[in-house]
Design a protein that fits this description.
The protein has one domain. The protein contains no helices and 19 strands. The termini are far apart.
Amino acid sequence: MKFQFLLKTIYVPLIVTGVFSIFLSGVCIAEDIILTGNQVLLIENMTYTNKGNINLYDNSKLIIRNSTFNFVQDYHEQYWIYINDSASFIIEDGSILTSDYRFYTSMDGSSKVTVNNSVALNMSSGRGAIFQPNQNSILEITNSNIDGVGDLAGYSASSKATITIQNSTMEAVSLVFPATSSVTFKWF
């Protein structure tokens, strides 16, 4: 679905009914985004602004490719990105996920987040996404700059989350393991 507008910024609620690609430059969504089923939202080759929560369920996907995604908030953790079930969130090909305030990207179920050759951090303020892998989720970060990884509420050893970070920089890591945990760190 392609749109043509003369406006640089528009404010609309986003209702996704299938595979949806955004082709507008300077789009601003001022509502929560909810993807379910097999819905896919592709944000590609543009600057996109979101002010609201993002919720991914079932097998849905949010893909940010070669774009700047501004996550607008009035204070820290005002809005979150929730990835649940088997949903996927992909940030790739030189994309920038940025905010003036920190925000959580909560990962539950067997969800997956991939950050590849991208930035999930406001480089001037040092704030951005705090990725929180839980349960059986997978977090893969390669050749990227991010704000942080961890669960400030307490990372559980009963979680079987897989975290892979290669050739990347982070502002912070906060993982808490109970005394009975088995933890392996590999440095290559």
